Amino acid sequence: MTVIEARGLRKAFGKTIALDGVNLRVEEGRILGLIGPNGAGKTTALDAILGLTSYQGELRVLGRNPWTERDLLMRDVCFIADVAVLPRWINVSQALDYVAGVHPRFDRAKAESFLAKTTIRHDSKVRQLSKGMVAQLHLALVMAIDARLLVLDEPTLGLDILYRKQFYDSLLNDYYDRSRTIVVTTHQVEEIQNVLTDVMFIDRGRIVFSCSMEDFESRYVEVMVNPEQIAAARALRPMHERPVLGRSVLLFDLASDGGVNQKLDRQQLSVLGEVHTPSLADLFVAVMSQQGGTAPGAAR
Amino acid sequence: MNTQSNTMPASPLGSQVPAVFAATRPMYWSIRREFWENRSIYIAPLAAAGLFLLGYMISMIHFRAKLRAAAGDQALQYNLIEHSYMLGAMLIMATTFIVALFYCLDALHGERRDRSILFWKSLPVSDLTTVLSKASIPILILPLIAFAITAALWIVMWLLSSAVLVGSGLRLPVESLHFPLVEMALVLLYHLVGIHGLWYAPIYGWLIMVSAWARRAAFLWATVPLLAIGIVEKIAFNTSHFAGILSYRFGGGEEPMGSMGSKATSIEALLIPNMSLGQFLVSPGLWTGLVTAALFLYLAMRVRRSRGPI
Lengths: 300, 310
Prior knowledge:
Oligomer: heterodimer
Radius of gyration of chain A: 21 Å
Number of helices of chain A: 11
Largest sheet of chain B: none
Helix content of chain A: 25-40%
Low-confidence stretches of chain B: 1-19, 255-266
Strand content of chain A: 25-35%
Number of domains of chain A: 2
Mean pLDDT of chain A: 87
Number of helices of chain B: 16
Low-confidence stretches of chain A: 294-300
Distance between the termini of chain A: 33 Å
CATH superfamily of the largest domain in chain A: P-loop containing nucleotide triphosphate hydrolases
Mean pLDDT of chain B: 83
Number of strands of chain B: 0
Strand order of the largest sheet of chain A: 5-6-7-3-8-9
Distance between the termini of chain B: 41 Å
């Protein structure tokens, strides 16, 4: 079953085009990472999916129009837009009361048991909690909602590494099952690489790359080329080349034509040097540089 | 605990069977939420009542002597007794009115300023529910709070003055006064709900709409355009219809300048409605006001839908 389906999604703010005809399809049970440089349109895309912004084009989320049916959609969709969106004046038990009072699918006992594992007290106000604790509280509220789609926009921005690790661990172990779908954007690509089932790169309002993680692992290969074989390696049309410690690391797409009218394979490449699977971040940089010029430092 | 999820079949279809929705009360919880966030809704009028009571207790020191001196003089008795009740009511009323104005200006602005709008919008509560819950505070809740606190204040005042008179042979000359307490309370309730709630509704609606729309300086956006319209009208046509409309609204339905003069000398004249309940309910001023308020609130809802953090 399709959870999100977008066709020709467009959004412009004045002269700035944030979304330039995005086509997107997310099936149930997937964990999709939406990765792109700053200002690529990630947040706008998520805002459209969540009914927070108007758009042109066609968009259905769980069969609903998010712009006109946000309140109904939010029974089945949860989102953590950013770390610090919980109101600072609310205290923990008020937050539990409120969500329990307005959300038909909120299981208060579940939220309480998650909170019991933290050091958060029920009478603390959000303004008294550390950033990491606020994220834990928000996650506790969201995980106790039996939603079908969870959208996370930079959910761990500004958290230290322990909280970030814990965040994704909780999400995977205590929340995710195959009937739920998760869409996540983050700059910390390395941290979610092994969480994702699918990945999309977005740049200047367009989806420039999309594949499942299984395909990613079988399709892309990085070779740390022996210096004497660099010319031979370059002849095989790598996607991207970067220097590491005085040697060149070349990234190949095995599905592409290696310049000799035959498919590349790992065997062939292993002759040239050390072969390994690239990280998402490396692929991202390669794809972005093929796109020709992008924001510096993106995806790091 | 969660029997529902335990009984769900483990098949992939399981999640597609719509779960029985727990009963929710978004309007009720949205209003409660306002009390959590804006404690001035009840603390400010309570503080005003406390302050007034303090003054009243000090005035009790010479109450016996004053009451003796006022025997037989209705004007003096009025000043001594009824006047202080009215004064207490006025203080609480003015406090809640100021609270209402500031509340409205911040209602849909604060949630954008502190980014919490993203949290509120992540929950299945419609923009309509949110706007109506916020509008209900000045239109309904604050008048009722003002009434409850005033009524409590009056009872305490009455008990205090009675206690002071115990054993003195004097008693409160209530029957000689213009209004007995209960009747005064009913007039007060009518005034609060009728004028402060319903008659002023378009003022609150306007402020709530501006608070949803303005990026910053909501107070300026709420006031300066009105001034500008009045001034432009004056210069262009040498008329002041717009100013007239505003003062008609703020004056609680009084004719802008005319009849105020004589009545306003006594405080109670401000409280006593200048029309009966029946006249009030069919007066065009009330209904044009309510329609205007509804229009402003509708616009506030539309604006909030497309607004995010600022």
